[in-house]
Amino acid sequence: MFFNRGGGSIPADDGDGILSRVTSSITESPIVYQGRRAASDAAFVAKKLLKSTGRAAWIAGTTFLILVVPLIIEMDRDAQLSEFEMQQASLLGSGPAPPAGTK
Amino acid sequence: MATLVPPPTTTTVPPANSNSAAAAESEKIDYMKLPCPIPYEEIHREALMSLKPELFEGMRFDFTKGLNQKFSLSHSVFMGPTELPTQSADVVKIPTAHYEFGANFLDPQMMLVGRVMTDGRVNARVKCDLSENLSLKANGQLTGEPHMSHGMANFDYKGKDYRTQFQFGNGALLGASYIQSVTPHFSLGGEVFWAGQHRKSGIGYAARYNTDKMVAAGQVASTGLVALSYVQKISEKVSLASDFMYNYLSRDVTASFGYDYFLRQCRLRGKIDSNGCVSAFLEERLNMGLNFILSAEVDHKKKDYKFGFGLTVGE
């Protein structure tokens, strides 16, 4: 079908010069057509891929935010607290014992 | 332990041998002295504690005031959207607010708990020890809507290495369960129930294996339910839990995995399940008797996001 249309158009363009004939035969050649199709397919797939990776990243990110971030914060707080207590104990350890008990 | 340490100097071999022999002797199971198993309905207790926190959406405030050692009053306010049950897949929420007043009486032999809500619901729970081994648990709920009120009574008998329970409820609900320790770590149980109103009856079996480090439990019932759970205690602060639920008749499968962290200032529970639902529940101790709660639940599949915060004062 494509070839038919191309073949039909070439004689009509005969008088317009060789340049337009060459360009039209290039633009309407099956290679260009297939190339264009492949490019649009690739763009479509890339768009889909980008969208799905974006969605996956969103899900992974929010999951991380809910499951892991509070855990890190709380573990850090706990570590700080025990470090503080260690320091306190080592500071008060040299002195008399009762203040450490009443603290 | 102190007697075990000195020998390794010279004449280690004979005492160590006799010690290990004695240990092996004590390892040998005395089947007449098995520990009492935990109740049949609580075989998934540890997994449920880690995986099913009371997630909520909105704001809640709970206040408990002890009047004397045994008697206390509680007030709680909740504001936030509540989900309406619908036929369609999408979620419908309406904003609600309610206040709940409660009175508790706690005594080693007797526990009475009552709750009244502003929407007209009345809830009562009784737990009392009738004798050394026999205890009665009852709860009832009255609501303004017809056919929603219900009542139930359980009689629990605790034997030396077994437990039995008889259950009576309205709507001609009858049930019985029995659980027996088979080895010191392993227990097996079964249950039967009959719901006269719905003309349904069923039978179920359960097994549970627990050591200091882990708990595994499994349950099957003729209603089509298969439930397996496993809890591993990594340390005294951390435990990991997973569970698997399968309904043979409706073909529903859910698996979930969660962690449970006990830190000095807080308790944090997180869970992820196979329905694309992620949740976390944080209880932070701000002060003595003052707890701050954060609850988060994100359902990626339904695009349903629930966040809540609350304060608990007293206790």
UniProtKB/TrEMBL annotation, chain A:
Keywords: Membrane, Receptor, Transmembrane, Transmembrane helix. This is Mitochondrial import receptor subunit TOM9-1. InterPro entries: Tom22_pln. It comes from Capsicum baccatum (Peruvian pepper). The chain crosses the membrane at residues 56-73. CDD domains: TOM22.
From TrEMBL, chain B:
The keyword Mitochondrion applies. GO terms for molecular function: porin activity; protein transmembrane transporter activity. InterPro entries: Porin_dom_sf (IPR023614), Porin_Euk/Tom40 (IPR027246), Tom40 (IPR037930). GO terms for biological process: monoatomic ion transport; protein import into mitochondrial matrix. Keywords: Acetylation, Ion transport, Membrane, Mitochondrion, Mitochondrion outer membrane, Porin, Protein transport, Receptor, Transmembrane, Transmembrane beta strand, Transport. It is a multi-pass membrane protein. This is Mitochondrial import receptor subunit TOM40-1. Belongs to the Tom40 family. Residues 10-21 have a biased composition (Low complexity). CDD domains: Porin3_Tom40 (cd07305).
